Amino acid sequence: MSRAFRDPTGGQQTRPGRQALLVLAHLRCGDTYARLAAGFRVGIATVYRYIREAVDLLAALAPTLEQAMQTIRKKAYVILDGTLLPIDRIAADWPYYSRKKKHHGMNVRVLADPAGRLIWVSDALLGATHDLTAARTHGIPAALAADGIKCWADKAYQGAGSAIRVPFRGKHLRDWRWRHNRDHANIRSLGERAIAILKSWRLLRKLRCSTTRITGIVRAVATLEFAS
Question: Which of left, alpha, beta for 102 (phi over 0: left; psi -120 to 50: alpha)?
């Protein structure tokens, strides 16, 4: 653990600080292992080890849904939304293919507060998983209903339960139903800010790692966001 990075200027910097910088460059900028190895003058195997160590540590600090509920209970309501994180897969990998988004990816759910600030991020599921199925898999409807918390979500969550409010279906709605959907959309759109926060970390815009590592990466990013 005492080993230090070699500084191009001839000096020495401690390993923890340089390791943190390396990991941030990977997560925030999406730099590849090869670029990081060249830029920090270490081997690719070392880059892999440093990133894995840091990601595992950060992921363990991300709040669970039960822990996030302590924050959610203090809010007037929450917004449920989700996104498909693009991954590098071939057409044969159909479990990862989202027909809704028309590409391969991993399904992630988020809960945001009324201002669009990120509160909680779920584990990553296969891209073919329906939004409602994903919410139920993570136990979101049950957790919200147990505490009587109001939640706004899109029409994909029809049937999720009374705690989750969704817009009316149909394209030619009239009177109060149309106004309801308009107001609902205005509220729910703030949840897209939480998705934008995640996507500001460039690595999540195109993941080329093993799908078993994606949950850890997402949770690591969430931990860094909560700490900022």
Answer: left
Q: What's the pTM?
A: 0.87
Instruction: Show the beta-strand stretches assigned E in 92-132.
Output: 97-98, 103-112, 118-121, 125-126
Mind listing the pLDDT tens digit for each residue in 161-191?
989 999 998 877 788 888 888 999 999 998 8
Cβ–Cβ contacts within 10 Å for residue 43, how many?
11
Strand partners, 6: 12
Instruction: Give the Cα-Cα-Cα angle 56, 62, 63 (nearest 5 degrees).
Output: 145
Q: Report the alpha-carbon distance of residue 66 to residue 205 in Å, rounded.
A: 28
Q: In 3-state terms, the chain is what percent helix, strand and coil (to 5)?
A: 50, 15, 35
Structure confidence by residue, pLDDT tens digits, 57-87? 999 999 999 999 999 999 999 999 999 999 9
β partners of residue 12: 6
Residue with tokens 């440093």: 50
